[in-house]
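Ticket 4471: requesting a sanity check on a complex prediction with glycine. Repro inputs:
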Amino acid sequence: MKIRLVIFYVVLFAISGCIYAGNGEKEMKLVIEKGLGRAIVQAKRMACSLLERKERLPRSIGKQGQLSTSDARAWTSGFFPGLLWYLYEVSGDDSLRIYADDYTRRLEKQQYTTDNHDVGFMLYCSYGNGWRLTKDESYKKVLLQGAKSLSTRFRPTVGCIRSWNRKPWQYAVIIDNMMNLELLMWASKNSDNSQFASIARSHADVTMKNHFREDYSCYHVVSYDTISGRPEQKCTYQGYADDSDWSRGQAWALYGYTMMYRETKKQEYLEQAVRIAHFLMGHPQMPEDKIPYWDFDDPDIPNTPRDASAAAIMASALVELSQYVNELFSNRCLLFAKEQLKALTSPAYLAEPGTNCNFVLKHSVSNKPKGTEVDKPLTYADYYYVEALLRYKQIVLKEK
Ligand code: GLY
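Returned C-alpha coordinates:
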Protein backbone atom coordinates (compact mmCIF):
# COMPACT_ATOMS: atom_id res chain seq x y z
CA MET A 1 0.00 0.00 0.00
CA LYS A 2 2.79 2.36 1.02
CA ILE A 3 4.75 1.61 -2.17
CA ARG A 4 1.67 2.32 -4.30
CA LEU A 5 1.24 5.66 -2.59
CA VAL A 6 4.89 6.58 -3.24
CA ILE A 7 4.55 5.59 -6.93
CA PHE A 8 1.34 7.65 -7.16
CA TYR A 9 3.09 10.77 -5.83
CA VAL A 10 6.17 10.29 -8.03
CA VAL A 11 3.95 10.02 -11.14
CA LEU A 12 1.89 13.02 -10.05
CA PHE A 13 5.06 15.06 -9.49
CA ALA A 14 6.43 14.10 -12.92
CA ILE A 15 3.16 14.97 -14.67
CA SER A 16 2.83 18.34 -12.95
CA GLY A 17 6.49 19.07 -13.80
CA CYS A 18 5.75 18.37 -17.48
CA ILE A 19 2.63 20.56 -17.41
CA TYR A 20 4.61 23.35 -15.75
CA ALA A 21 7.44 23.03 -18.32
CA GLY A 22 4.87 22.95 -21.13
CA ASN A 23 3.20 26.11 -19.86
CA GLY A 24 6.60 27.80 -19.39
CA GLU A 25 7.45 26.94 -22.97
CA LYS A 26 4.15 28.30 -24.23
CA GLU A 27 4.68 31.52 -22.31
CA MET A 28 8.20 31.97 -23.74
CA LYS A 29 6.94 31.33 -27.26
CA LEU A 30 4.53 34.23 -26.82
CA VAL A 31 7.26 36.45 -25.37
CA ILE A 32 9.58 35.65 -28.27
CA GLU A 33 6.87 36.15 -30.87
CA LYS A 34 5.97 39.52 -29.38
CA GLY A 35 9.57 40.73 -29.02
CA LEU A 36 10.66 39.69 -32.49
CA GLY A 37 7.44 40.98 -34.08
CA ARG A 38 7.93 44.37 -32.45
CA ALA A 39 11.61 44.44 -33.44
CA ILE A 40 10.71 43.81 -37.08
CA VAL A 41 8.20 46.69 -37.12
CA GLN A 42 10.63 49.10 -35.46
CA ALA A 43 13.70 48.08 -37.46
CA LYS A 44 11.89 48.42 -40.79
CA ARG A 45 10.71 51.90 -39.87
CA MET A 46 14.22 52.85 -38.76
CA ALA A 47 15.81 51.41 -41.93
CA CYS A 48 13.33 53.29 -44.11
CA SER A 49 13.88 56.58 -42.26
CA LEU A 50 17.67 56.60 -42.85
CA LEU A 51 17.72 55.00 -46.28
CA GLU A 52 18.79 58.15 -48.15
CA ARG A 53 21.30 59.26 -45.48
CA LYS A 54 23.94 56.86 -46.71
CA GLU A 55 26.64 57.77 -44.20
CA ARG A 56 24.48 57.46 -41.08
CA LEU A 57 23.63 54.67 -38.63
CA PRO A 58 21.22 54.78 -35.67
CA ARG A 59 22.68 55.28 -32.23
CA SER A 60 20.24 56.62 -29.59
CA ILE A 61 17.88 59.52 -28.79
CA GLY A 62 19.35 63.01 -28.37
CA LYS A 63 18.68 65.64 -25.71
CA GLN A 64 15.79 67.18 -27.71
CA GLY A 65 14.14 63.81 -28.17
CA GLN A 66 15.32 63.43 -31.78
CA LEU A 67 16.92 60.35 -33.36
CA SER A 68 20.67 60.54 -32.90
CA THR A 69 22.86 58.87 -35.50
CA SER A 70 26.57 58.32 -36.03
CA ASP A 71 28.89 57.80 -38.94
CA ALA A 72 30.48 54.41 -39.49
CA ARG A 73 33.48 55.18 -37.28
CA ALA A 74 31.45 55.01 -34.05
CA TRP A 75 31.87 51.79 -32.04
CA THR A 76 28.09 51.32 -32.28
CA SER A 77 27.87 51.38 -36.09
CA GLY A 78 27.61 47.61 -36.66
CA PHE A 79 24.68 46.88 -34.37
CA PHE A 80 21.84 48.11 -36.57
CA PRO A 81 22.98 46.15 -39.65
CA GLY A 82 23.45 43.15 -37.32
CA LEU A 83 19.93 43.58 -35.97
CA LEU A 84 18.60 43.60 -39.54
CA TRP A 85 20.48 40.37 -40.31
CA TYR A 86 19.02 38.62 -37.26
CA LEU A 87 15.52 39.75 -38.20
CA TYR A 88 16.04 38.58 -41.78
CA GLU A 89 17.25 35.23 -40.40
CA VAL A 90 14.13 34.72 -38.32
CA SER A 91 11.59 36.03 -40.84
CA GLY A 92 13.08 35.23 -44.25
CA ASP A 93 11.68 38.62 -45.30
CA ASP A 94 13.68 39.73 -48.32
CA SER A 95 13.19 43.44 -47.66
CA LEU A 96 15.13 42.95 -44.41
CA ARG A 97 17.97 41.25 -46.29
CA ILE A 98 18.16 44.19 -48.71
CA TYR A 99 18.20 46.69 -45.83
CA ALA A 100 20.78 44.59 -43.96
CA ASP A 101 23.10 44.55 -46.97
CA ASP A 102 22.69 48.32 -47.51
CA TYR A 103 23.46 49.19 -43.87
CA THR A 104 26.29 46.66 -43.64
CA ARG A 105 28.14 48.15 -46.62
CA ARG A 106 28.07 51.57 -44.94
CA LEU A 107 30.85 50.18 -42.71
CA GLU A 108 33.15 49.01 -45.49
CA LYS A 109 36.00 51.45 -44.73
CA GLN A 110 36.13 50.29 -41.12
CA GLN A 111 38.10 47.23 -42.22
CA TYR A 112 41.14 49.56 -42.15
CA THR A 113 40.49 50.89 -38.62
CA THR A 114 43.65 50.59 -36.56
CA ASP A 115 43.26 53.43 -34.07
CA ASN A 116 40.90 51.60 -31.67
CA HIS A 117 39.75 48.07 -30.83
CA ASP A 118 36.10 48.48 -31.81
CA VAL A 119 36.60 47.10 -35.30
CA GLY A 120 35.55 43.69 -33.90
CA PHE A 121 32.20 44.99 -32.62
CA MET A 122 31.60 46.94 -35.82
CA LEU A 123 32.44 44.30 -38.38
CA TYR A 124 31.51 41.04 -36.69
CA CYS A 125 27.93 42.14 -35.92
CA SER A 126 27.38 43.51 -39.43
CA TYR A 127 29.59 41.70 -41.96
CA GLY A 128 29.95 38.66 -39.69
CA ASN A 129 26.22 37.99 -39.56
CA GLY A 130 25.98 38.84 -43.26
CA TRP A 131 28.66 36.25 -44.07
CA ARG A 132 27.07 33.63 -41.80
CA LEU A 133 23.73 33.97 -43.57
CA THR A 134 24.74 34.58 -47.20
CA LYS A 135 28.35 33.38 -47.63
CA ASP A 136 28.94 36.47 -49.78
CA GLU A 137 32.70 36.47 -50.54
CA SER A 138 32.90 40.27 -50.50
CA TYR A 139 31.84 40.21 -46.83
CA LYS A 140 34.55 37.67 -46.05
CA LYS A 141 37.25 39.91 -47.53
CA VAL A 142 36.20 42.82 -45.32
CA LEU A 143 36.18 40.60 -42.22
CA LEU A 144 39.67 39.25 -42.87
CA GLN A 145 41.09 42.72 -43.45
CA GLY A 146 39.30 43.88 -40.27
CA ALA A 147 40.95 41.06 -38.29
CA LYS A 148 44.36 42.12 -39.65
CA SER A 149 43.71 45.72 -38.63
CA LEU A 150 42.62 44.66 -35.13
CA SER A 151 45.72 42.48 -34.74
CA THR A 152 48.00 45.49 -35.28
CA ARG A 153 46.91 46.62 -31.81
CA PHE A 154 48.42 43.57 -30.09
CA ARG A 155 51.75 43.84 -28.28
CA PRO A 156 53.43 40.64 -27.07
CA THR A 157 55.00 42.43 -24.07
CA VAL A 158 51.53 43.06 -22.67
CA GLY A 159 49.78 40.07 -24.25
CA CYS A 160 46.63 42.08 -24.96
CA ILE A 161 45.08 44.14 -27.72
CA ARG A 162 45.17 47.83 -26.87
CA SER A 163 41.64 49.20 -26.62
CA TRP A 164 42.15 52.95 -26.66
CA ASN A 165 45.00 55.36 -27.31
CA ARG A 166 43.56 57.74 -24.68
CA LYS A 167 45.71 59.59 -22.20
CA PRO A 168 46.60 59.36 -19.30
CA TRP A 169 46.88 55.63 -19.83
CA GLN A 170 49.97 54.06 -21.40
CA TYR A 171 48.09 51.06 -22.75
CA ALA A 172 44.38 50.92 -21.89
CA VAL A 173 42.58 47.60 -22.11
CA ILE A 174 38.87 47.61 -21.31
CA ILE A 175 36.77 44.57 -20.43
CA ASP A 176 34.55 45.29 -23.47
CA ASN A 177 37.51 44.22 -25.61
CA MET A 178 36.71 40.55 -24.89
CA MET A 179 33.88 40.97 -27.41
CA ASN A 180 36.28 41.80 -30.25
CA LEU A 181 37.94 38.40 -29.95
CA GLU A 182 35.07 36.70 -31.80
CA LEU A 183 36.20 38.36 -35.05
CA LEU A 184 39.72 37.00 -34.53
CA MET A 185 38.49 33.48 -33.79
CA TRP A 186 36.38 33.59 -36.95
CA ALA A 187 39.32 34.90 -39.01
CA SER A 188 41.57 32.15 -37.72
CA LYS A 189 39.09 29.49 -38.87
CA ASN A 190 38.51 31.17 -42.21
CA SER A 191 42.12 31.82 -43.26
CA ASP A 192 45.49 30.12 -42.95
CA ASN A 193 46.60 32.55 -40.26
CA SER A 194 46.53 30.91 -36.83
CA GLN A 195 48.04 34.08 -35.31
CA PHE A 196 44.54 35.52 -35.01
CA ALA A 197 43.53 32.77 -32.57
CA SER A 198 46.82 33.02 -30.63
CA ILE A 199 46.25 36.74 -30.12
CA ALA A 200 42.66 36.15 -28.97
CA ARG A 201 43.72 33.43 -26.48
CA SER A 202 46.54 35.55 -25.11
CA HIS A 203 44.18 38.50 -24.65
CA ALA A 204 41.62 36.34 -22.84
CA ASP A 205 44.31 34.76 -20.60
CA VAL A 206 45.91 38.06 -19.60
CA THR A 207 42.52 39.70 -19.04
CA MET A 208 41.48 36.78 -16.81
CA LYS A 209 44.61 37.36 -14.72
CA ASN A 210 44.43 41.14 -14.38
CA HIS A 211 40.88 42.40 -14.83
CA PHE A 212 39.10 40.39 -12.14
CA ARG A 213 38.67 40.88 -8.43
CA GLU A 214 38.35 38.16 -5.80
CA ASP A 215 34.57 37.96 -6.18
CA TYR A 216 34.86 37.67 -10.00
CA SER A 217 33.52 41.13 -10.64
CA CYS A 218 35.80 43.09 -12.95
CA TYR A 219 37.38 46.47 -13.46
CA HIS A 220 36.42 48.43 -16.53
CA VAL A 221 39.90 49.64 -17.49
CA VAL A 222 43.29 48.06 -16.85
CA SER A 223 46.20 50.07 -18.19
CA TYR A 224 49.54 48.34 -18.73
CA ASP A 225 53.11 49.53 -18.44
CA THR A 226 54.45 49.06 -21.96
CA ILE A 227 57.98 48.21 -20.83
CA SER A 228 57.33 45.71 -18.03
CA GLY A 229 53.98 44.52 -19.50
CA ARG A 230 52.48 44.69 -15.99
CA PRO A 231 49.27 46.54 -15.01
CA GLU A 232 50.00 50.18 -14.07
CA GLN A 233 46.43 51.20 -13.15
CA LYS A 234 43.01 49.60 -12.59
CA CYS A 235 40.07 51.98 -12.84
CA THR A 236 36.86 52.93 -14.57
CA TYR A 237 35.77 55.17 -17.41
CA GLN A 238 32.03 54.56 -17.51
CA GLY A 239 31.29 53.14 -14.08
CA TYR A 240 30.36 54.81 -10.79
CA ALA A 241 33.82 54.31 -9.23
CA ASP A 242 37.09 52.55 -9.95
CA ASP A 243 36.18 49.61 -7.74
CA SER A 244 32.43 49.53 -8.49
CA ASP A 245 30.58 46.93 -10.53
CA TRP A 246 29.62 48.70 -13.77
CA SER A 247 26.82 46.49 -15.07
CA ARG A 248 27.56 46.41 -18.76
CA GLY A 249 31.21 45.65 -18.07
CA GLN A 250 30.20 42.59 -16.03
CA ALA A 251 27.90 41.53 -18.88
CA TRP A 252 30.68 41.91 -21.48
CA ALA A 253 32.89 39.69 -19.30
CA LEU A 254 30.23 36.98 -19.02
CA TYR A 255 29.55 37.02 -22.75
CA GLY A 256 33.26 37.17 -23.65
CA TYR A 257 34.35 34.12 -21.65
CA THR A 258 31.30 32.10 -22.71
CA MET A 259 32.11 32.87 -26.35
CA MET A 260 35.82 32.08 -25.89
CA TYR A 261 34.91 28.71 -24.39
CA ARG A 262 32.70 27.98 -27.41
CA GLU A 263 35.57 28.88 -29.73
CA THR A 264 38.44 27.11 -27.92
CA LYS A 265 36.89 24.55 -25.54
CA LYS A 266 39.45 25.72 -22.97
CA GLN A 267 38.09 24.68 -19.57
CA GLU A 268 39.40 27.77 -17.72
CA TYR A 269 37.24 30.02 -19.88
CA LEU A 270 34.14 28.03 -19.02
CA GLU A 271 35.05 28.10 -15.32
CA GLN A 272 35.52 31.86 -15.54
CA ALA A 273 32.15 32.32 -17.28
CA VAL A 274 30.43 30.20 -14.62
CA ARG A 275 32.00 32.22 -11.80
CA ILE A 276 30.95 35.51 -13.41
CA ALA A 277 27.43 34.14 -13.90
CA HIS A 278 27.28 33.13 -10.21
CA PHE A 279 28.47 36.59 -9.21
CA LEU A 280 25.90 38.37 -11.41
CA MET A 281 22.88 36.16 -10.77
CA GLY A 282 23.47 36.25 -7.03
CA HIS A 283 24.24 39.97 -6.81
CA PRO A 284 22.45 41.45 -3.77
CA GLN A 285 21.66 44.63 -5.77
CA MET A 286 20.05 42.77 -8.66
CA PRO A 287 16.47 44.09 -8.91
CA GLU A 288 13.51 41.73 -8.83
CA ASP A 289 12.86 41.99 -12.57
CA LYS A 290 16.58 41.20 -13.20
CA ILE A 291 17.26 44.33 -15.24
CA PRO A 292 20.42 45.70 -13.58
CA TYR A 293 20.92 49.23 -12.39
CA TRP A 294 23.54 50.88 -14.63
CA ASP A 295 26.10 50.31 -11.84
CA PHE A 296 25.50 47.91 -8.92
CA ASP A 297 27.30 50.26 -6.54
CA ASP A 298 25.55 53.53 -7.29
CA PRO A 299 24.58 54.82 -3.80
CA ASP A 300 21.35 56.25 -5.30
CA ILE A 301 19.94 52.76 -5.84
CA PRO A 302 16.95 52.28 -6.24
CA ASN A 303 16.58 55.83 -7.60
CA THR A 304 19.03 55.44 -10.43
CA PRO A 305 18.51 54.28 -14.03
CA ARG A 306 18.44 50.67 -15.14
CA ASP A 307 20.52 49.47 -18.07
CA ALA A 308 18.47 47.34 -20.46
CA SER A 309 21.57 46.84 -22.63
CA ALA A 310 23.37 45.07 -19.75
CA ALA A 311 20.34 42.82 -19.25
CA ALA A 312 20.15 41.95 -22.95
CA ILE A 313 23.87 41.10 -23.19
CA MET A 314 23.60 39.04 -20.01
CA ALA A 315 20.49 37.15 -21.18
CA SER A 316 22.11 36.29 -24.49
CA ALA A 317 25.25 35.02 -22.75
CA LEU A 318 23.29 33.00 -20.18
CA VAL A 319 21.30 31.21 -22.87
CA GLU A 320 24.55 30.20 -24.54
CA LEU A 321 26.24 29.27 -21.25
CA SER A 322 23.30 27.03 -20.35
CA GLN A 323 24.43 24.64 -23.09
CA TYR A 324 27.86 24.02 -21.59
CA VAL A 325 27.12 23.36 -17.90
CA ASN A 326 25.43 20.72 -15.75
CA GLU A 327 21.64 20.48 -15.73
CA LEU A 328 21.12 22.22 -12.42
CA PHE A 329 23.18 25.27 -13.35
CA SER A 330 21.83 25.25 -16.88
CA ASN A 331 18.28 25.53 -15.52
CA ARG A 332 19.33 28.38 -13.28
CA CYS A 333 20.88 30.29 -16.22
CA LEU A 334 17.79 29.73 -18.36
CA LEU A 335 15.37 30.75 -15.64
CA PHE A 336 17.33 33.95 -15.10
CA ALA A 337 17.53 34.75 -18.84
CA LYS A 338 13.82 34.01 -19.14
CA GLU A 339 12.98 36.51 -16.39
CA GLN A 340 15.13 39.12 -18.11
CA LEU A 341 13.55 38.53 -21.50
CA LYS A 342 10.04 38.63 -20.02
CA ALA A 343 10.82 41.96 -18.33
CA LEU A 344 12.40 43.43 -21.47
CA THR A 345 9.35 42.37 -23.50
CA SER A 346 6.95 44.05 -21.05
CA PRO A 347 5.57 47.57 -21.63
CA ALA A 348 8.12 48.89 -19.12
CA TYR A 349 10.97 48.31 -21.59
CA LEU A 350 9.53 47.39 -25.00
CA ALA A 351 8.61 50.41 -27.12
CA GLU A 352 5.18 50.76 -28.66
CA PRO A 353 5.24 50.61 -32.48
CA GLY A 354 6.33 53.90 -34.05
CA THR A 355 7.53 55.40 -30.74
CA ASN A 356 11.02 55.62 -29.18
CA CYS A 357 12.46 56.96 -32.49
CA ASN A 358 11.95 53.41 -33.77
CA PHE A 359 14.35 51.74 -31.34
CA VAL A 360 13.06 48.50 -29.84
CA LEU A 361 13.95 48.90 -26.17
CA LYS A 362 13.79 51.85 -23.79
CA HIS A 363 15.89 52.55 -20.67
CA SER A 364 19.60 51.95 -21.24
CA VAL A 365 22.63 53.91 -20.10
CA SER A 366 25.71 54.61 -22.17
CA ASN A 367 27.93 56.75 -19.94
CA LYS A 368 26.33 58.12 -16.78
CA PRO A 369 29.41 59.88 -15.33
CA LYS A 370 29.68 61.88 -18.57
CA GLY A 371 25.89 62.36 -18.84
CA THR A 372 25.80 60.72 -22.29
CA GLU A 373 22.71 58.72 -23.31
CA VAL A 374 21.36 58.18 -19.82
CA ASP A 375 18.03 56.32 -19.62
CA LYS A 376 17.77 56.26 -23.41
CA PRO A 377 17.42 53.58 -26.06
CA LEU A 378 20.71 52.27 -27.43
CA THR A 379 21.27 50.41 -30.69
CA TYR A 380 23.32 47.69 -28.93
CA ALA A 381 20.55 47.00 -26.41
CA ASP A 382 18.28 46.18 -29.38
CA TYR A 383 20.91 43.98 -31.03
CA TYR A 384 21.61 41.79 -27.99
CA TYR A 385 17.91 41.64 -27.03
CA VAL A 386 17.03 40.20 -30.44
CA GLU A 387 20.08 37.91 -30.32
CA ALA A 388 18.94 36.61 -26.91
CA LEU A 389 15.38 35.98 -28.15
CA LEU A 390 16.74 34.18 -31.19
CA ARG A 391 19.13 32.08 -29.10
CA TYR A 392 16.32 31.13 -26.73
CA LYS A 393 14.12 30.18 -29.69
CA GLN A 394 16.82 28.14 -31.44
CA ILE A 395 18.66 26.62 -28.48
CA VAL A 396 15.96 26.10 -25.87
CA LEU A 397 12.78 25.76 -27.91
CA LYS A 398 14.68 24.10 -30.78
CA GLU A 399 12.86 26.17 -33.38
CA LYS A 400 14.38 27.74 -36.50
N1 GLY B 1 32.03 49.51 -25.38
C1 GLY B 1 31.52 50.66 -24.79
C2 GLY B 1 30.34 50.44 -23.90
O1 GLY B 1 30.03 49.35 -23.51
O2 GLY B 1 29.71 51.41 -23.58
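Notes from triage: The chain is about 55% helix and 10% strand. Leaving this open until the requester confirms.
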